[in-house]
Amino acid sequence: MLPYPQIDPVALSLGPLKIHWYGLMYLIGIGGAWFLASRRLKAFDPAWTKEKLSDLVFWVAMGVILGGRLGYVLFYDLSAYLNDPLKILRVWEGGMSFHGGLIGVMLATWWFGKRHGKGFFELMDFIAPLVPIGLGAGRIGNFINAELWGKATDLPWAMVFPTDPQQLARHPSQLYQFALEGVALFVILWIFSRKPRPAMAVSGLFAICYGIFRFIVEFVRVPDAQLGYLAFGWLTMGQVLCLPMILGGAGLMYYAYRRQAAQGVTR
Protein backbone atom coordinates (compact mmCIF):
# COMPACT_ATOMS: atom_id res chain seq x y z
CA MET A 1 0.00 0.00 0.00
CA LEU A 2 1.22 3.48 -0.85
CA PRO A 3 0.78 6.39 1.57
CA TYR A 4 -1.56 9.10 0.40
CA PRO A 5 0.40 12.39 0.13
CA GLN A 6 -1.21 14.85 2.51
CA ILE A 7 -1.62 17.93 0.28
CA ASP A 8 -3.64 20.85 1.58
CA PRO A 9 -6.45 21.49 -0.95
CA VAL A 10 -5.84 25.21 -0.35
CA ALA A 11 -2.74 26.20 -2.29
CA LEU A 12 -2.53 29.73 -0.93
CA SER A 13 -4.34 31.74 1.74
CA LEU A 14 -4.37 35.52 1.60
CA GLY A 15 -6.48 36.55 4.56
CA PRO A 16 -10.07 35.61 3.76
CA LEU A 17 -9.11 34.77 0.16
CA LYS A 18 -8.27 31.11 -0.42
CA ILE A 19 -6.84 29.81 -3.67
CA HIS A 20 -7.59 26.11 -4.11
CA TRP A 21 -5.48 23.64 -6.07
CA TYR A 22 -8.66 22.49 -7.83
CA GLY A 23 -9.14 25.95 -9.31
CA LEU A 24 -5.47 26.24 -10.22
CA MET A 25 -5.75 22.97 -12.18
CA TYR A 26 -8.33 24.62 -14.41
CA LEU A 27 -5.97 27.54 -15.02
CA ILE A 28 -3.19 25.09 -15.89
CA GLY A 29 -5.47 23.25 -18.28
CA ILE A 30 -6.63 26.45 -20.00
CA GLY A 31 -3.12 27.93 -20.16
CA GLY A 32 -1.65 24.69 -21.48
CA ALA A 33 -4.35 24.44 -24.15
CA TRP A 34 -3.69 28.01 -25.28
CA PHE A 35 0.07 27.41 -25.49
CA LEU A 36 -0.26 24.22 -27.54
CA ALA A 37 -2.93 25.74 -29.78
CA SER A 38 -0.61 28.67 -30.53
CA ARG A 39 1.99 26.16 -31.73
CA ARG A 40 -0.44 24.89 -34.37
CA LEU A 41 -2.20 28.14 -35.13
CA LYS A 42 -0.55 28.82 -38.51
CA ALA A 43 -1.22 25.28 -39.71
CA PHE A 44 -4.86 25.68 -38.69
CA ASP A 45 -5.38 29.10 -40.29
CA PRO A 46 -2.47 31.40 -41.29
CA ALA A 47 -4.83 34.39 -41.14
CA TRP A 48 -5.71 33.86 -37.48
CA THR A 49 -4.00 36.00 -34.86
CA LYS A 50 -3.18 35.00 -31.31
CA GLU A 51 -5.81 37.47 -30.17
CA LYS A 52 -8.49 35.54 -32.03
CA LEU A 53 -7.13 32.31 -30.57
CA SER A 54 -7.33 33.84 -27.09
CA ASP A 55 -10.98 34.69 -27.74
CA LEU A 56 -11.67 31.09 -28.78
CA VAL A 57 -9.92 29.70 -25.69
CA PHE A 58 -11.84 32.10 -23.45
CA TRP A 59 -15.25 31.07 -24.77
CA VAL A 60 -14.35 27.39 -24.73
CA ALA A 61 -13.21 27.78 -21.10
CA MET A 62 -16.56 29.39 -20.28
CA GLY A 63 -18.25 26.43 -21.92
CA VAL A 64 -16.19 24.03 -19.79
CA ILE A 65 -16.93 25.79 -16.50
CA LEU A 66 -20.61 26.58 -17.02
CA GLY A 67 -21.41 23.36 -18.84
CA GLY A 68 -19.41 21.26 -16.39
CA ARG A 69 -21.18 22.73 -13.38
CA LEU A 70 -24.67 22.62 -14.85
CA GLY A 71 -24.03 19.13 -16.17
CA TYR A 72 -23.11 17.90 -12.71
CA VAL A 73 -26.23 19.48 -11.25
CA LEU A 74 -28.50 17.91 -13.87
CA PHE A 75 -26.81 14.51 -14.26
CA TYR A 76 -25.61 13.76 -10.75
CA ASP A 77 -27.17 15.71 -7.88
CA LEU A 78 -30.16 17.85 -8.89
CA SER A 79 -32.05 17.50 -5.59
CA ALA A 80 -29.11 18.75 -3.48
CA TYR A 81 -28.79 21.89 -5.58
CA LEU A 82 -32.52 22.53 -5.49
CA ASN A 83 -32.30 22.45 -1.69
CA ASP A 84 -29.25 24.74 -1.64
CA PRO A 85 -29.08 26.79 -4.87
CA LEU A 86 -26.02 28.76 -3.71
CA LYS A 87 -24.09 25.50 -3.62
CA ILE A 88 -23.73 25.79 -7.39
CA LEU A 89 -21.33 28.72 -6.86
CA ARG A 90 -18.96 26.74 -4.59
CA VAL A 91 -17.00 25.24 -7.47
CA TRP A 92 -13.89 24.73 -5.29
CA GLU A 93 -15.77 21.97 -3.45
CA GLY A 94 -15.76 19.90 -6.64
CA GLY A 95 -18.79 18.79 -8.57
CA MET A 96 -18.02 19.15 -12.26
CA SER A 97 -19.24 16.89 -15.04
CA PHE A 98 -17.04 16.17 -18.04
CA HIS A 99 -20.05 15.40 -20.21
CA GLY A 100 -21.72 18.67 -19.23
CA GLY A 101 -18.48 20.49 -19.96
CA LEU A 102 -18.30 18.80 -23.37
CA ILE A 103 -21.79 20.03 -24.22
CA GLY A 104 -20.75 23.52 -23.09
CA VAL A 105 -17.65 23.39 -25.31
CA MET A 106 -19.70 22.26 -28.29
CA LEU A 107 -22.18 25.11 -27.86
CA ALA A 108 -19.40 27.67 -27.39
CA THR A 109 -17.56 26.32 -30.45
CA TRP A 110 -20.67 26.42 -32.61
CA TRP A 111 -21.39 30.02 -31.54
CA PHE A 112 -17.78 31.13 -32.08
CA GLY A 113 -17.60 29.44 -35.48
CA LYS A 114 -20.77 31.19 -36.64
CA ARG A 115 -19.26 34.55 -35.73
CA HIS A 116 -15.90 33.89 -37.41
CA GLY A 117 -16.83 31.87 -40.47
CA LYS A 118 -15.50 28.51 -39.27
CA GLY A 119 -17.25 25.18 -39.51
CA PHE A 120 -18.21 23.41 -36.29
CA PHE A 121 -16.06 20.32 -36.88
CA GLU A 122 -13.22 22.41 -38.28
CA LEU A 123 -12.95 24.02 -34.86
CA MET A 124 -13.74 20.88 -32.86
CA ASP A 125 -10.98 18.96 -34.64
CA PHE A 126 -8.58 21.77 -33.74
CA ILE A 127 -9.71 21.84 -30.10
CA ALA A 128 -9.94 18.10 -29.40
CA PRO A 129 -6.18 17.38 -29.01
CA LEU A 130 -5.97 20.21 -26.46
CA VAL A 131 -8.71 18.93 -24.16
CA PRO A 132 -6.65 16.18 -22.43
CA ILE A 133 -4.44 18.86 -20.85
CA GLY A 134 -7.41 20.11 -18.85
CA LEU A 135 -8.72 16.61 -18.21
CA GLY A 136 -5.41 15.48 -16.77
CA ALA A 137 -5.03 18.59 -14.63
CA GLY A 138 -8.61 18.18 -13.36
CA ARG A 139 -7.93 14.61 -12.26
CA ILE A 140 -4.90 15.78 -10.30
CA GLY A 141 -7.22 18.29 -8.66
CA ASN A 142 -9.58 15.44 -7.75
CA PHE A 143 -6.64 13.55 -6.25
CA ILE A 144 -5.53 16.52 -4.15
CA ASN A 145 -9.13 16.95 -2.94
CA ALA A 146 -9.16 13.22 -2.07
CA GLU A 147 -12.44 12.79 -3.97
CA LEU A 148 -13.75 10.34 -6.56
CA TRP A 149 -11.63 7.53 -5.17
CA GLY A 150 -11.95 3.90 -6.20
CA LYS A 151 -13.15 0.65 -4.72
CA ALA A 152 -11.32 -1.23 -1.99
CA THR A 153 -8.39 -3.31 -3.22
CA ASP A 154 -5.31 -5.12 -1.94
CA LEU A 155 -3.10 -4.02 -4.85
CA PRO A 156 0.31 -2.68 -3.75
CA TRP A 157 -0.46 0.84 -5.02
CA ALA A 158 -3.73 1.16 -3.09
CA MET A 159 -4.17 4.23 -0.89
CA VAL A 160 -6.21 5.23 2.16
CA PHE A 161 -7.86 8.58 1.46
CA PRO A 162 -8.45 10.94 4.40
CA THR A 163 -12.00 11.67 3.19
CA ASP A 164 -12.98 7.99 3.28
CA PRO A 165 -15.03 7.34 6.45
CA GLN A 166 -14.25 3.62 6.21
CA GLN A 167 -10.49 4.21 5.85
CA LEU A 168 -10.06 1.36 3.40
CA ALA A 169 -7.16 0.88 0.99
CA ARG A 170 -8.60 1.88 -2.38
CA HIS A 171 -7.79 2.22 -6.06
CA PRO A 172 -6.40 5.72 -6.74
CA SER A 173 -8.85 5.98 -9.63
CA GLN A 174 -8.13 9.69 -10.08
CA LEU A 175 -4.58 8.75 -11.10
CA TYR A 176 -5.86 6.05 -13.46
CA GLN A 177 -7.98 8.70 -15.14
CA PHE A 178 -5.06 11.13 -15.21
CA ALA A 179 -2.96 8.50 -16.99
CA LEU A 180 -5.66 7.53 -19.49
CA GLU A 181 -7.79 10.65 -20.04
CA GLY A 182 -4.85 13.01 -19.63
CA VAL A 183 -1.57 11.44 -20.79
CA ALA A 184 -2.64 8.60 -23.09
CA LEU A 185 -5.45 10.54 -24.75
CA PHE A 186 -3.18 13.53 -25.35
CA VAL A 187 -0.47 11.38 -26.96
CA ILE A 188 -2.97 9.56 -29.20
CA LEU A 189 -4.71 12.71 -30.41
CA TRP A 190 -1.58 14.83 -30.74
CA ILE A 191 0.13 12.23 -32.94
CA PHE A 192 -3.03 11.46 -34.94
CA SER A 193 -3.75 15.13 -35.64
CA ARG A 194 -0.22 15.97 -36.78
CA LYS A 195 -1.14 14.80 -40.27
CA PRO A 196 -4.11 16.10 -42.29
CA ARG A 197 -7.25 14.15 -41.47
CA PRO A 198 -10.76 14.34 -42.92
CA ALA A 199 -13.14 16.63 -41.05
CA MET A 200 -14.73 14.93 -38.01
CA ALA A 201 -12.00 12.24 -37.72
CA VAL A 202 -10.08 13.87 -34.85
CA SER A 203 -13.32 14.64 -32.98
CA GLY A 204 -14.51 11.08 -33.57
CA LEU A 205 -11.28 9.57 -32.24
CA PHE A 206 -11.47 11.80 -29.17
CA ALA A 207 -15.02 10.63 -28.41
CA ILE A 208 -14.12 6.96 -28.89
CA CYS A 209 -10.95 7.00 -26.78
CA TYR A 210 -12.33 9.12 -23.96
CA GLY A 211 -15.50 7.05 -23.82
CA ILE A 212 -13.58 3.77 -23.65
CA PHE A 213 -11.04 5.02 -21.09
CA ARG A 214 -13.73 6.45 -18.81
CA PHE A 215 -15.96 3.37 -19.20
CA ILE A 216 -13.09 1.10 -18.09
CA VAL A 217 -12.07 3.15 -15.04
CA GLU A 218 -15.69 3.34 -13.86
CA PHE A 219 -15.46 -0.37 -13.03
CA VAL A 220 -13.03 0.38 -10.18
CA ARG A 221 -14.34 3.83 -9.21
CA VAL A 222 -16.93 4.22 -6.48
CA PRO A 223 -20.11 5.70 -8.01
CA ASP A 224 -21.60 8.91 -6.63
CA ALA A 225 -23.30 8.06 -3.33
CA GLN A 226 -26.53 9.81 -4.25
CA LEU A 227 -26.84 7.74 -7.46
CA GLY A 228 -25.14 4.41 -6.85
CA TYR A 229 -25.33 1.89 -9.67
CA LEU A 230 -28.06 2.48 -12.23
CA ALA A 231 -28.45 -1.07 -13.59
CA PHE A 232 -27.06 -4.61 -13.44
CA GLY A 233 -25.21 -3.87 -10.21
CA TRP A 234 -22.32 -2.22 -12.06
CA LEU A 235 -23.53 0.34 -14.60
CA THR A 236 -22.76 3.91 -13.47
CA MET A 237 -23.95 7.28 -14.72
CA GLY A 238 -20.48 7.89 -16.16
CA GLN A 239 -20.74 4.71 -18.22
CA VAL A 240 -24.26 5.57 -19.38
CA LEU A 241 -23.04 8.95 -20.61
CA CYS A 242 -19.98 7.42 -22.30
CA LEU A 243 -21.89 4.89 -24.40
CA PRO A 244 -23.35 7.49 -26.81
CA MET A 245 -19.89 9.11 -26.99
CA ILE A 246 -18.30 5.86 -28.16
CA LEU A 247 -21.05 5.13 -30.68
CA GLY A 248 -21.17 8.73 -31.89
CA GLY A 249 -17.39 8.87 -32.26
CA ALA A 250 -17.36 5.66 -34.27
CA GLY A 251 -20.09 7.08 -36.49
CA LEU A 252 -18.12 10.29 -37.05
CA MET A 253 -14.96 8.43 -38.04
CA TYR A 254 -16.85 6.09 -40.35
CA TYR A 255 -18.60 8.98 -42.06
CA ALA A 256 -15.39 11.06 -42.28
CA TYR A 257 -13.38 8.36 -44.05
CA ARG A 258 -16.29 7.16 -46.17
CA ARG A 259 -16.83 10.71 -47.43
CA GLN A 260 -13.09 11.12 -48.07
CA ALA A 261 -13.04 7.89 -50.09
CA ALA A 262 -16.10 8.95 -52.09
CA GLN A 263 -14.54 12.33 -52.88
CA GLY A 264 -11.33 10.62 -53.95
CA VAL A 265 -13.23 8.40 -56.39
CA THR A 266 -15.18 11.23 -57.97
CA ARG A 267 -12.17 13.44 -58.71
TrEMBL record:
Supply one GO CC term from the record. Answer: plasma membrane
EC number(s): the record gives: 2.5.1.145
> Where does it mainly reside?
membrane
The entry's family comment says: Belongs to the Lgt family.
ATP-binding among the record's keywords? no
Role, per record: Catalyzes the transfer of the diacylglyceryl group from phosphatidylglycerol to the sulfhydryl group of the N-terminal cysteine of a prolipoprotein, the first step in the formation of mature lipoproteins.
Protein's UniProt keywords contain Transmembrane helix: yes
Any one GO BP annotation for this protein: lipoprotein biosynthetic process
Note the topology in the membrane: Multi-pass membrane protein
Residues involved in a 1,2-diacyl-sn-glycero-3-phospho-(1'-sn-glycerol) binding: R139
Could you list the residue ranges that cross the membrane?
19-36, 56-76, 96-113, 120-140, 175-192, 199-217, 229-257
A Pfam family reported for this protein in Swiss-Prot or TrEMBL: LGT
Its protein name is Phosphatidylglycerol--prolipoprotein diacylglyceryl transferase
Q: What class of enzyme is it?
A: transferase
